[in-house]
Amino acid sequence: MEILSPNHETDSLRESPNLNRAPRENAMRTRARAIRQAGTVEDAIASSRLPLEVTLTVSEGVILGLLRQGVRKYVVMLGHGNTELGEALRIYTELSRLQWWVAQPFWRQRHSAGAVIL
Prior knowledge:
The chain is mainly alpha-helical.
């Protein structure tokens, strides 16, 4: 399946789920470094370290949106459908000031979240 952009060029990020992840991971690392160096997402944009428009995964978009709101601690339950979120969290944790914990089994998740908030 091929997804075409408005100018009828193939969107290479969505063309196949088995694409080499290295270019996307490198781009994500570059953005995470830019945010770490600038201090905040807004400062990274203001200093032109981050462009105003980027192509990124939904997982990274969620992390960037929460970073803009000051969220730095995450309690997550990773599984088959959200391993991409785990990868994005791993990269942003390595290159910025995020912390995250995996809660398993599910019933422990709410207790872990309460402990982190305190």
